[in-house]
Amino acid sequence: EFIRIVSLTFRLFGNMTAGEILLLVAAFLIPWIFALPFYGLELLIGFIQAIIFGGLTLIFLTLAVESHEEEAH
Questions:
Q1: Is the pLDDT of residue 12 over 60?
Q2: Is 19 a catalytic residue?
Q3: Euclidean distance between CA atoms 18 and 31, whole angstroms
Q4: Average pLDDT of the chain to the nearest whole number
């Protein structure tokens, strides 16, 4: 159970770090006015990642609680 959470954390961290690196490279290569759509895209991706992370956390916690309830009976 713990490995799932660690794996999810590393994937989320990797996605967020890659987005930041992409924005930094784009900021140096193109004028800031052309980089604005990329900032919007990064905000959208961050929002989607937050929904996915919250949903998967809810699923993992539900599975962990259900398995303990079944063992008690």
A1: yes
A2: no
A3: 20
A4: 81
Is 67 a known active-site residue? Answer: no
Of 4, 8, 11, 49, the active-site residue reads 11
The span from the CA of 6 to the CA of 69, in Å, is 24
The catalytically annotated residue of 4, 8, 12, 15 is: 15
Mean pLDDT of the region 4-32:
83
Query: How is the chain split into domains, by residue range?
Result: 2-72
Contact 45, 15 (CB under 8 A): yes
* Nearest residue to 53 via CA among 6, 9, 22: 9
Whether 59 has a pLDDT exceeding 80, the answer reads yes
